[in-house]
Amino acid sequence: MALDSTRPTSDQSRPNSLRNATCENVRLVEVPMEISHEDFLMFIDRALDGMLRIVEELGEERANMRPDLPGANSPYAILTHCIGVCDYWIGTLLGKRESFRDRDAEFRASGTVVELRERVGELKANLLADIKQVQGEKPLESAPNSMYNPLRSTDFGDWTEGTALIHAYEELAQHHGQMELTRDVLIGN
Q1: Over the stretch 36-45, which tens digit does the pLDDT of each residue have?
Q2: 1 pLDDT band (50/70/90 cuts)?
Q3: Which domains, ranges and CATH numbers included, belong to the chain?
Q4: In whole angstroms, how far apart are CA 60 and each of 48, 112, 114?
Q5: Which H/E stretch holds residue 175?
Q6: Burial code of 42-78, b = ≥16 C-beta within 10 A, e = fewer?
Q7: DSSP secondary structure, 137-161, as one string
Q8: What three-state secondary structure class fits 134?
Q9: Over the stretch 11-37, which tens digit does the pLDDT of each residue have?
Q10: What pLDDT, on a 0 to 100 scale, did the predictor assign at position 147?
Q11: Measured at the alpha carbon of residue 79, what is the angle toward residues 75 and 83, in degrees to the nearest 5?
Q12: Tens digits of per-residue pLDDT, 78-104?
């Protein structure tokens, strides 16, 4: 293979401002990341709607069944937990809505598909108002309850409104996948 002698050397191909750049003398400019409320809620809604669809497809009997696996939860309980996650992390911490949460009871919950559909609808109706004033880099006014804080045993610093939003989505995405697997086990796939 022949070398192209007309091609500039790596230093010559850089713009003048970067020719002598090294890690030590380049200043990085942090640009805030932004995401619209609508874009964020589109993915929250997709996860909630996907989980609700699974509960509806399974019907009340199967939706309230736990697979015969250690530590498994019913699809009904998983979605109830996700409603609790959103009510707390988005509604209480960001939207300043009062909510009572019994996390342990979320995993024992059972009921009708109609009840869950209503609760998901109410939650979705509240979420846009909850996040209207969110500023991603702004510290939370109060620290998350240590019982719900997934980073309690780490050296993670202070929570911001943005990290609270990302955590809520993290929970929904994780549990949506869990529910898909749970559904497959319950229907025998």
Answers
A1: 899 999 999 9
A2: very low
A3: 35-187 (1.20.120.450)
A4: 17, 6, 9
A5: helix 161-187
A6: eebbebbeebbebbeebebebbbbbbeeeebbbbbbb
A7: TSBPSSPPPTTT-TTTTS-----BH
A8: coil
A9: 555 455 445 555 566 666 777 778 889
A10: 78
A11: 170
A12: 999 999 999 999 999 999 998 889 999
pTM above 0.85, yes or no: no
Phi-psi bin for 169: left (phi > 0), alpha (psi -120 to 50), beta? alpha
- pLDDT, tens digit (0-9, with 9 covering 90-100), for 180-189: 999 999 999 6
- 87 φ/ψ angles, rounded to the nearest 5 degrees: -60, -40
Residue 97 · residue 126 · CB < 8 Å: yes
In our burial notation (b when 16+ CB lie closer than 10 A, e otherwise), range 29-39 reads: eeeeeeeeeee
Q: How far is the C-alpha of 44 from the C-alpha of 11, rounded, in Å?
A: 46
User: 164: which 2 tokens?
Assistant: 């609270």
Nearest-5° angle of CA 121, CA 125, CA 131?
Answer: 135
Measured between alpha carbons, how far is 61 from 170 in angstroms, rounded to an integer? 28
Mean pLDDT across the chain = 86
Token code pair at residue 187: 């229907």
Give DSSP secondary structure letters for 76-131.
HHHHHHHHHHHIIIIIITTT-------HHHHTT----HHHHHHHHHHHHHHHHHHH
